[in-house]
Amino acid sequence: MEMIATALPALGQAWALILQPMVLGYLVLGVVMGLAVGVFPGLGGIAGLSLLLPFMFGMDPVLGLALMIGMVAVVPTSDTFASVLMGIPGSSASQATVLDGFPMAKRGEAARALSAAFTSSLFGGLVGAAFLTLFILVARPIVLAFGLPEMLMITVFGLSMVAILAGRVALKGVAAAGLGLLIGTIGEADAGGSLRMSTYDIPYLIDGLQLVIVGLGIFAIPEIVSLLRQDRAISQDANLGAGWADGVRDWFANKWLSVRCSIIGVVVGVIPGLGGSVVDWIAYGHTVQSTRDTSEFGLGNVRGVIGPESSNNAKEGGGLVPTLLFGIPGSGSMAIFIGAIALLGSGDIEVGPSMLRDNLDITYSIVWLLALANVVGTLLCIAASGGIARLTTIRFTYLAPFLFMLIAFAAFQSGQNFEDLLALFAIGLIGVFLRRFDWSRPAFLIGFVLSNPIEKFSNQAVQIASFRFRKSFEEGMEYVFSPIVIVLIVITVLSVVFGLRQAKAIAAEGEVPTGSKRAPVAFLLLIMGYVVAALINANAIPDYNMTDKIVPLVVGGVTLAACLMLMVQMMRRPESDAVFADKEMAGEDADAPHGLWGTLAWFAGLIAATWVVGFILALVGFLLAFFRIRAGCGWGKTLLLSAAGVGFMCLMASALNRDFPPGLLQDAFDLPWPLR
Amino acid sequence: MTKFTRAALAALLAATPFAATAETDLSGETVEWVIPFSETGGSAKWANFFAPLLSEALPGQPTVVVKFMPGAGSTKGANWFHEQENGDGTLIFGSSGSTQFPYLLNDPRVRYEYNDWEPVMATGTGGVAYLEPEAGAKFDGSANALQDIDFIYGSQGATRLDLVPLLAWEMLGMNVEPVFGIKGRGDGRLMFERGEANIDYQTTSGYLGGSADLVEQGQAVAMMTWGALDEDGNIVRDPTFPDLPTFKEVCEATEGCETSGEAWDAWKAFFVAGFPVQKLAFLPKGTDQEVIDTYVAAFETVRNRDDFEQISSQTVGEYPVFVGEGAQRALEQATSVPQGAKDYVKTWLRDSYGVELEG
Questions:
Q1: Which UniProt keyword terms apply here (chain A) (predicted)?
Q2: Are the Cβ atoms of A54 and B179 closer than 8 angstroms?
Q3: According to DSSP H, which parts of chain B are helical?
Q4: Is A667 a member of any domain?
Q5: What is the pLDDT of residues A576-593, one digit of tens each?
Q6: Does the beta-carbon distance from A327 to B108 stay under 8 Å?
Q7: Which class for B169: exposed (0-12), middle (13-18), buried (19 or more C-beta within 10 A)?
Q8: Which pLDDT score, from 0 to 100, does residue A504 have?
């Protein structure tokens, strides 16, 4: 009661702060800027926020908050465009949306998928805000109840989603997830600093691979290459059948699913340290488990869009709890947000434990500004979706070079190394083959995302648990098997059992034909080769750094075992078995007019030319050559499209104050921007 | 402000070439302030705070933008900066304790040389260690009664700033087991709040932002600060926490802990490099004296703003901002660690944590 007595007046003050024309104006401005940045895959909220930072100094706190929150809130909304229309995960928040959203776009239902996604986002954001208004008052002890064993179990629960997304051959899913986990361990270990599959001679690998690059490589490149080979529009249907009203109706028909997934989003978002990058997968898993007929998942089931999209905006709200209550950012953009708050006004708003006591009105303003920004952003997105959905009717050959340009730029922003482009290409190649041989790409990505948390939490939990066990057995057991852990174990086991039962029905890659044995076996041998190399490499780490080698060894061992079992299956089964899935044997990939290598060579050419003459000059050559030769355009169109691409790239880079990858030419000569 | 800080400031002011003739005009230019960390860290906050103030104070009011170049524990950005030679005043670089420590420990990734660069500004911070209440009750200004307790500490890694607290606790004879791999001191505090760790330390801003509250509510007991430096390089009480003893005082009161000798020299050397001179702003090697003077004068103006003390409370705290020759002296203090101290720390890192550093 006392709680409500303090909360209500603060809530009133918060609304009084928000509902001023100036504040709302700044909010809309932030939303528009956020949409402009978020539409482009791989850039996301961090790029946008750091753009705003210089203006935050001394700004009126509420105005500054409105501007920043407007920007942050709409990124998980606007990134849906790339996920649904192009099959490119716009940010880590909308990876799962790709699975069903993109097939819908291919079917000509882009507008329907988009509006279902946006409505879900909006609803998720509102549920998140309502939930937070009460929850934030009691959140502290609950957040503190999540210690290392609990976080480890949540991570394991996230990993158990692999069971649902493993695809038709479960072993392949396990091996793909294992490979993702192993690739996630590349670089310097957090605990002891040992190097895994890297050397000091290649500094790039020491920091490990970035999620942006792996996400784009695994999902975007294979789709772009495949569509480009077929030389047609994304949508097989020239007229976009289902419109945006259908999407809203779809959402309404599944409103309870949306509620449940929103709650999942808030709850997982609240827990610090997970960063919420698995929320959408957990929501997707829940969606599949709670649907009777799963045959359509992966082929364009609208529920597969509604679930993850309901959760990812709610997650942003949940992420405010650790940020505001503990001063511990739940994500990269929240970290900048904290830094920026210190610059606002006279600098007296301090994020942290005192926030609720001293600034409850500001806290509530933040929560409800977030909700309002969601509303504004969603309305804008729905309004735009009909028009933007037309992109799917354009011949894809006209879009592809721009997409290659955008993802190369986005990849470079993650580390500002030329190696970022090489890594993108290498991961893209893995993605192309995973897709071709029907190894679950979602499983790979889940493995990669959870690699670091699994390793970190298990090492730390074991260290602290052994400490408790040394004191007394009871204390150790109490620490390891807390009630939360037990509940999570039960949920995980149930999820795996249900998941395996339903997994066979989900064909994330659609129907995949089978053919000869040679290519699938060769790919398996390649994977095994890497796993063995990683195992040998991890084993070479001295034993006193056990924390750095134990996870690669265990994961590598399991992956190798899965690969060996696959090998046995391959030896025993006939060529027509699903284990020999190969997209090059029949279907749209096999019938495509252009070859795989020839198409990839265009992207490789862009990267190679960048290495020599830098990105912008390489881009000029790439666009000209591509439109003229591959797309067969006349010179007028070629010049126009190329100029548009290069001009747009320069405009965006200068607005975001970003550099382009330099090449050998730039090493030798000092050139003016943007050639620099 | 304490008497000491004021004295230190006065001394530094006197040492600064105040009458630097600022002929360099930067109007219409864009100054890039490169930070070898990501957008999310403390150095980003620091640079973002100073950037608009610097822009106002520089002749011609150029746009000052902060650029982030993270990687390899900040050595990537520092290596890059070392190769830059455009000393026309459009590039400055910010380094932090995390850049200084690998340099001092001859990390194989380090290809930069601090002494080639031109320091123009430096700021420092302090640090506070605290204990869970039960252990805190046994703390009497010495660590004598803390010897039999098993402590757990959430650490970012023994070669980072955490080297300073870890070595201090070991010198006090305390049994502290670090749990490595956390991503920031905030995570360490969370581990402490959850009861998984029972000892922690925070830099001044982190302590004031979160941990001071725990101490007030009796969920933690403040143990000691690392201290601050006076003009002669002696460790004195931290001006922000005048009531807390320094590690030096606690060490003197604790049996078996010496405030002289190899271990002490090593600890002090790394403390100085990590705290009182934590963050430095540099111009590239070979920059014209005229440009250097312009920047020194600009930072001087920033420091002398009437509202500086108020607006800087969260980023700088009650610690002096060194400018010009003061920054030069600060750099010397931070990077001239005797070989004996380096060897001691390297041996200790190898024996206690199995960290091998070549060189």
A1: Membrane, Transmembrane, Transmembrane helix
A2: no
A3: 3-15, 42-57, 75-82, 97-104, 133-137, 163-171, 185-193, 204-206, 212-216, 247-253, 262-274, 289-303, 308-311, 325-335, 339-353
A4: no
A5: 888 888 888 877 788 888
A6: no
A7: buried
A8: 63
Residue A545 to residue B354, Cβ atoms within 8 A: yes
Chain B residue numbers with beta carbons less than 8 Å from the beta carbon of A417 are 71
The minimal CB distance from A207 to the residues B51, B72, B187 is found for B72
> Which of A57, A274, A331, A482 is the best substitution to test chain B (most B C-beta atoms within 10 A)?
A57
Residue type, B311: I
Residue spans of chain A under pLDDT 50: none
Q: Cite the residue boundaries of each domain of chain B with CATH code 3.40.190.10.
A: 127-273
Is A467 within 8 Å of B314 when comparing Cβ atoms?
no
Q: Which of B175, B311, B349 to mutate to test the interface with A (most CBs of A within 10 A)?
A: B311
What is the predicted ipTM?
0.84
As its CATH architecture, domain B127-273 has: 3-Layer(aba) Sandwich (3.40)
Q: Which residue has the tokens 């399991």?
A: A558
CB pair distance less than 8 Å for B180 and A191:
yes
Which residue from A minimizes the CA distance to B73?
Answer: A207
Judged by CB atoms closer than 8 Å, whether chains meet at A192 and B355 is answered as yes
Query: What pLDDT score was predicted for residue A240?
Result: 60
Q: Hey, is the C-beta of B354 within 8 angstroms of any chain A C-beta?
A: yes
CB contact under 8 A, B311 and A346: yes
- Verify whether the Cβ–Cβ distance A460 to B109 is below 8 Å: no
Number of domains in chain A: 1
Choose the mutation target among B49, B202, B314 for the interface with A, i.e. most A CBs under 10 Å. Answer: B314
Contact B52 A57 (CB under 8 A): yes
Which of these, B281, B286, B282, lies nearest to B87 by C-alpha position? B286
Chain A interface test: which of B90, B180, B199 (most A C-beta within 10 Å) = B180
- B3-124+277-339 is a CATH 3.40.50.720 domain: no
What are residue B66's phi and psi, to 5 degrees? -95, 130
Could you tell me which residues come within 8 angstroms of residue B261 by beta carbon, excluding any fewer than 6 positions away? none
CB distance A499 to A163 below 8 Å: yes
- Average pLDDT by stretches of 10, chain B with 359 residues: 47 44 74 84 83 91 85 84 85 90 86 92 92 95 93 88 94 93 82 93 85 91 93 88 96 94 92 91 92 94 88 77 90 87 91 74
Q: A94, A507, A100: which is closest to A300 by C-alpha? A: A100
Q: Does A79 fall in a domain?
A: yes
Indicate where chain B has its CATH 3.40.190.150 domain(s): 3-124+277-339
Q: Do B209 and A346 touch (CB under 8 A)?
A: no
| Residue A603 lies inside a defined structural domain of this protein | no
The pLDDT of residue A569: 92
CB B277 within 8 A of CB B124: yes
Q: Using the beta-carbon criterion (under 8 Å), do A144 and B210 form an inter-chain contact?
A: no
Q: Letter for the amino acid at A243?
A: G
User: How confident is the model over A604-632, as pLDDT tens digits?
Assistant: 999 999 999 999 999 999 999 999 999 99
Q: What is the pLDDT of residue B156?
A: 84
Domain, as residue range, for A117: 8-235+243-561
B 141-180: CB under 8 A from A: 150, 152, 154, 157, 159, 177, 179-180
Kindly report, residue by residue over A240-286, the tens digit of the pLDDT: 655 778 888 999 999 999 999 999 998 888 877 665 677 888 899 88
A572 lies in a domain? no
Query: For A411-414, which contacts have Cβ atoms below 8 Å and span 24 or more sequence positions?
Result: A411/A42, A411/A212, A411/A213, A411/A216, A412/A615, A412/A660, A412/A661, A413/A42, A413/A43, A413/A47, A413/A212, A413/A658, A414/A42, A414/A210, A414/A212, A414/A213
pLDDT at B21: 45
